[in-house]
Amino acid sequence: MKQKFFFLFSALYFLIAAAIQGQPVDVLIKNGHVIDPKNKIDAVMDIAIRDNKIFEVSPKINKEAKKVIDASGLYITPGLIDIHGHHFFGTENDAYLSNSFTALPPDGFTFRSGVTTVVDAGGSGWRNFHTFKSQTIEHSKTRVFAFLNIVGSGMRGGAYEQNLSDMDAKLTAMVAKQYPQYIVGIKLAHYASHEWDPTERAVKAGELAGIPVMIDFGGCEPPLSMETLLMEKLRPGDILTHCYGQTKGRMHVVENGNVQPYAVNAQKRGVIFDVGHGGGSFVFEQAIPAIKQGFKPNSISTDLHTGSMNAGMKDMSNVMSKLLNIGLTLNEVITCSTWNPAQIINKKELGHLSVGAPADVAILSVDKGSFGYVDVNGIKITGDKKLVCQMTLRDGEIVWDLNGLSGTIAK
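User: That's the sequence. What structure does it adopt?
Assistant: Structure tokens below.
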């Protein structure tokens, strides 16, 4: 009897599987060059999407599809992940990046650059995360996570961010553990005194919640020791953002044209170096010699806000293009914008095109020509390559189509 049921069940399973295989897929992207670092794919492939998931990736897919997109001459990548942006937008006066005018709603500034996932870097703290969640996270098509600020009131600027009494590791960790689906790390930024207490409290909160810490370091004269931060205070998996910055009140990874040994040693021990371009934190004087000497970032991010988007940073694809023109390979640029950040924030279901993964996809062109790129000090280089996002899909839905790849040709 058991054997009979086994054969019946097996036959039913194969009939259902065959029926599913025979159904049309929702989207079929053909002839594009797929770069999927997690799965070590760097070749021309077709991608089929069904029910918001990656259904198949192979050299030739001959399936009926509701929508066919010809990506010949283009690159297909996982949806980009920007782990340092500022999206707690709102209308509070004098609140800098915490429910304020300076932050930006995600959907207007993500899909057009191929970004499908963002992490708000410290706009909210434990006191106002619920507002960020209800106001932004729950109303965005973009997938939104958060680094929770160690300051309870978030990144309000000025004296608020210098308030040591509002840096509570226990309460910060409690809120982080309450919302693990949204909160992926702890953030410390803009502290400007000669104390290690803020760093230690942020790391403690990270330890209690089991998540990494992102540090925006500097602001003291003379500066606190970057070597101490990287080699003693931060844990493997913790993040130094603005890694190619050259701001007052901080030590830099490049001094007198040479990468500092402590930076190399810290990266080897697992400290993450994030670009975090921003409006004041990326200079070619740091980035070019660092990359030439083999010191490359672990992740590429924008530090997007109203100041950076209208200056040298512009958007994710522009930051990626800069790094492509100063020494990173295209595969390295894509890795630092997809699979690496997914691992850094412990969201390993993202950042790749594995069968069954969410169908977050970017279709990019690498345009050739003469393009100008400017750092935060107004220093310009000319490059011959520019990444342009032609199409973005979020959960299988086309949310950006620059040149009508998915459109029907007019008669």
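The first strand starts at residue 25 and ends at 36.
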